[in-house]
Amino acid sequence: MAVRFEKQESIGQIVLDRPPANSYDKAFMDELDAAIEEARRDDAVKAILLRSANEKFFSAGADVSVFAKSGLDEQNAFVTRANEAMNKFESTPKVVVAAINGHCLGGGLEMALCCDFRVAAEGSYRIGLPEVTLGLLPGTGGTQRLPRLIGRQKALDLMLRGTTLAPQDALAAGIVDEVVPAAELLEKALARVRAYAAGPTLAIGRIKQAVAQGLGMRLDEGLKLERQLLTELFKSEDAKEGVTAFVEKRKPSYKGR
Q: What 3-state DSSP class applies to 150?
């Protein structure tokens, strides 16, 4: 399998494993979609880690040979399928952390941008959206998510030039959230995932929803969404437990429901 799902206690791991570069085709995207669905449906999974089994690549993005040997309809269908699968990282009400261990380019970075946080290893590899060098544009969310993350001017310049960055430069630009020694990447990324998995995960998921959906709305619509999600939380066992524990001056015991 090119993508597999593994579960360790409350952490779901989605592992990319299509040598040599984790470049994706339709079959890869079908497996990615299935892995995300498994993680989001499993109530025992409280947070998700996306990582690569490849030593040198997180993902080099779309398999360019797919475009080279297919017609326009097939190309459009492929891009649509990739968008459908990747978007599920963003729409899943569980925190998703990407552990970037190697080259993270084009659709590989777009996949990571769908995650909530990105932890990168130190190294000489590159991170960026170089699609313009193929006469194309980032078509699985890059032109929309990168400007929202780091600002219009920086994102536009990077995409227009096809610039790729070293991990520390990606950190300075705001593309990744943390850069750690390569030997500690999995440990550090898992520590971040476990922190989100250990808290009131129902509230954590609703906060993610409010931010992810609300940023695309007018302020009044976003505030309405916020109130709706808060009303849902008021009805939850976790909210009752949190308030009761506060009054009783004890540590709350959250169940994620």
A: helix
pLDDT at 216: 86
Question: Euclidean distance between the first and final Cα of the chain, in Å?
Answer: 33
pLDDT digit string (tens) for 43-94? 999 999 999 999 999 999 998 888 888 889 889 999 999 999 999 999 999 9
Give the contacts of 225 (CB within 8 A, at least 6 positions apart): 209, 210, 213, 214, 217
pLDDT of residue 64: 86
Residue 2: phi and psi, rounded to 5, are -80, -25
Place of tokens 């006469």: 135
Cα–Cα distances in angstroms (integers) from residue 42 to residues 6, 37, 198, in the given order: 12, 9, 16
- Active site amino acids: 110, 131
pLDDT at 82: 95
Phi, psi at residue 74, to the nearest 5°? -65, -40
Alpha-carbon gap, residue 192 to 201, rounded angstroms: 14
Residues of the chain with pLDDT below 70 are none
> What is the helix (H) or strand (E) element at residue 16, kind and residue range?
strand 11-16
Determine the pLDDT at residue 253.
Answer: 86
Can you spell out the DSSP letters for 70-94?
Answer: S-HHHHHHHHHHHHHHHHHHHHSSS
Closest listed residue to residue 126, CA positions, set 141, 146, 105, 97? 105
